[in-house]
Amino acid sequence: MNSPYYGGETLWVTTSELRETYVFDTAIKVTNEALADHSALKQYPIDSVVIAMYGATIGRLGMLGKSASVNQACCVYAQPEKFHPRFFYFWLWMRRPILISLSSGGGQPNLNQEELKRIRVPIPPLDEQEQIAAFLDWKTGQIDALIAKKQALIEKLKEKRLAVITQAVTKGLDPSALLKDTHIPWLGEVPKHWDIKRLRFATEKIEQGWSPQCDNQPAEDEAWGVMKVGCVNGDRFDPLENKALPLDLVPLAEYELQPKDILVSRANTKELLGSAAIVPEDVRAKLLLCDKLFRLRTVSDVDGEFLTFYLRTPTARYQYEREATGASGSMQNIGQGTLKNLVVPLPPIDEQRQICRRIKFETEKLDLLLQQSESAIARLTEYRTALITAATTGQIDVRNVEIPAQA
């Protein structure tokens, strides 16, 4: 549609607004003229069920909390005669994996609207459908609240973990140590006996790798593979994040990863730009550095683990982000000059290693709590799915369940 049709008061739902909940607002709204001039642009009533038909969002669901129009990537079930809307929504949510399996198309799978029209749905009496929907709203609301609490705890644990690391690598372990002002706003004070260096003087080498056209699958254990930028995304080096080097290409052996190499993401989204990980001692052979990663090798008086911890801190990230280039918000780049000029606080080597031991001790406890919280979320999510399936298929009888009024 032309831009004059935008800026009205009618919600215009796209698949990005479908989040398994009610839609009360949209990023774009359309005018009455748009509705009048485009016969395909209908206005659907409250409680209509919406499903995304193709692309990365295929199968996403939502319900209209206000009357709205939708774009062509959405299919709408409106004003059902034999279904309670919430019962149908929950049933559709339960059947979503099967519906997605019916999609066609390679790079961008599509759900056919005619296929969606032909789906067969069990029809309990309307009062029973309403009871099932009310029961599921009540129980899934409780489960969702528990999941939200666990997710909030995870965020706090991640913040604490990062704070522990940042404090240790920028202020040290001795709270009574004399401090000096670095006169660098984002670094502030550091222990008086620490050095402040540019990264170029803390490393023997900073280099980028090689990115030939590769097969879109991981290399076999004994074959050559080129690392993907995602190998450093999760604080630990992931050797499976690689692409198989075609057999007709000769590997450049000088780019083979070695234990204790520090890898830093050169090109990535803003959130992941500058992600860093250290290659472990037991890394397998025949993995090659790609050109979207920097490889750092430290000088003798700089501990690689200490430097890697520092590179993940907000102090280092601030320096990356202010120098990043790239027109796209989804892909940013940092050059070697940015990395070489990074300001790094450096205690004596023995203190660096002591700090690393303390960080590992403290973060292992936090990581255990994170793992327990993530496992709890997985169990709750599985229970939620099982409950919806059981209620919408009659495996459990909820007709006589008394539902609290506030639910």
Radius of gyration: 27 Å
Instruction: Count up the helices.
Output: 8
CATH superfamily annotation of the domain at 195-346: DNA methylase specificity domains
Helix content bin: 25-40%
The CA-CA distance between the termini, in Å, is 41 Å
Major sheet summary line: 4 strands, mixed
| H-E string | EEEHEEEEHHHEEEEEEEEEEEHHEHEH
CATH topology of the domain at 195-346: Adenine-n6-DNA-methyltransferase TaqI, Chain A, domain 2
Structural class: alpha+beta
Shape by Cα distribution: elongated
CATH architecture heading of the domain at 195-346:
Alpha-Beta Complex
Q: Please state the average pLDDT score.
A: 92
Biggest sheet, strands in spatial order? 2-5-4-7
Number-wise, the strands total: 20
Determine the strand fraction and express it as a percent band: 15-25%
Class of the domain at 195-346 in CATH?
Answer: Alpha Beta
User: Quaternary state, please?
Assistant: single chain
Q: Ranges with pLDDT <50 over ≥5 residues?
A: none
Description of the molecule:
With 407 residues, the chain is an alpha+beta fold. Among the domains are: 3-121, DNA methylase specificity domains (Adenine-n6-DNA-methyltransferase TaqI, Chain A, domain 2, Alpha-Beta Complex); 195-346, Adenine-n6-DNA-methyltransferase TaqI, Chain A, domain 2, CATH 3.90.220.20. It is 35% helix and 18% strand. It is elongated, with a radius of gyration of 27 Å. The two termini are 41 Å apart. The mean pLDDT is 92.
